[in-house]
Specification:
The chain has about 120 residues and is an all-alpha fold. The chain has four helices and no strands. Helix 1 (about 5-30) packs antiparallel against helix 2. The protein starts with a helix and ends with a helix.
């Protein structure tokens, strides 16, 4: 993999980390009666299931970070929901969806990033 691709991925995930830090701070302010662990669990699970798969799948199109992030949230929701539904129909237990689907979708997105960029 080329150094430029590593730089692009690193910059993008640094930006995502900053966004998550901001979201955690805002959630802690809004839900001040909840513990920090509950807020971290909520934000990180949303990130793992929705944001990362959708964001990584958006590398297929050469978009700016904000566009890739926002459209990726919708794409991640659609992909995770649809694939989870079909995996449930063929008999795969839901406890495997939470681990396997995001990993597969992120790996597909990174493979596309390697080939496309």
């Amino acid at each position: 993999m080329n150094q430029d691709k590593f730089k692009i991925l690193r910059k993008d995930f640094e930006k995502i980390g900053m966004i998550l830090l901001g979201v955690i701070i805002v959630f802690k302010i809004l839900f001040h009666k909840e513990s920090l662990f509950v807020i971290l669990k909520l934000v990180l699970s949303f990130t793992w299931l929705i944001i990362l798969p959708g964001f990584s799948l958006m590398y297929y199109w050469k978009l700016k970070f904000v566009e890739r992030f926002l459209i990726g949230i919708g794409l991640g929701t659609v992909c995770f929901g649809g694939l989870s539904y079909w995996l449930g129909l063929i008999g795969v237990h839901i406890k495997y969806h939470i681990v396997v689907l995001p990993i597969v979708l992120v790996l597909i997105g990174w493979f596309v990033c390697i080939k496309k960029l």
